[in-house]
Amino acid sequence: MHQFDRDVLFQPDEPLTFSGHITENWSINGVPDGGYLMAILAKAMMQHSEMISTPIITANFLNRCEPGDAEVTIEKMSASRQFNRFQGRLNQKGKEKIRAFGTFADEDKACLVERCEVSGPEIAELEKCLAVPEIPNYTLFGQLDVRLDPICTGWMSGKLSDISEIKGWIKFKNDRPFDVLSILLIADSFPPAVISSQGMVAWVPTLELSVNIRKLPTTDWLKCSFRTRFITCGLLEEDGEIWDQKGALIAISRQIAQYRAHTT
To answer: Cα 71 from chain centroid?
Structure first.
């Protein structure tokens, strides 16, 4: 079993209650990654869903999580011939940290129309991209191989862009295959797009993240792009696209985050 699979698996205590441990293996500056936490909730939902394909998962981050013991409770909201819908809560130390909603479709649902009005992002070849190094306290990048397109890395040397965009390639370092749960992780594993225009001073805690998985990839690497267009009233949005190497759309995402510039 891969590390990620061990780290998202919570054991059932009662039919709709699970307990487990949020590990330090998928953290950003010591804080568990939001996509990793969403995968924990989605895993619990999938254990009670008759349908597990192409989910839409939306999580509201109410309070900051930390590595340690946690409890997940889920509730089936509705079931039809097309969809199963669930609500899930993640609690730590008696306090609700995340509330999530999951919609799951039938795996055999036919795709009658296949239309993309835009193509995948133009990203530099792998060997020309900059690998995100392993950084102390940023354990996520010890698990994932993230390669950033040079066009969006000027912020590393103080050369800020007029466009808030981050794009590049990603896969597991241990070559774990992609599945539903890993796509949730991938959707929150790149540096925030806003740092390309605002620099490392930006603080962007996630308020809400929604990931809509359209299909599973069949390639070794995924191409991702994340774009912020509006920073207003202390909030920003980040729209994401995940594609495979064959040009298939894998997932789309939208994140709403708080923005505060660094003050001295």
So the answer is: 20
201 to 43, 121, 148, 192, 219: CA distances (angstroms): 34, 27, 19, 11, 35
Cβ atoms of 85 and 78 within 8 Å: the answer is yes
Where do we find the tokens 């920003």?
236
Number of domains into which the chain is organized: 2
- What three-state secondary structure class fits 183? helix
User: Tens of pLDDT along 145-189?
Assistant: 999 999 999 988 889 999 999 999 999 999 999 999 999 999 999
pTM: 0.94
Q: Which of 76, 105, 134 is the last residue of a domain?
A: 105
Is residue 134 within 8 Å of 140, Cβ to Cβ?
Answer: no
Q: How confident is the model at residue 110 (pLDDT cuts 50, 70, 90)?
A: low
The CATH number for 154's domain is 2.40.160.210
180 within a domain of the structure (yes/no): yes
Shortest CA distance to 256 belongs to which of 232, 224, 225?
232
Looking at per-residue pLDDT, the higher value among 1 and 196 belongs to 196
Q: List the structure tokens of 64.
A: 């900051």
230 with 133, same domain: the answer is: yes
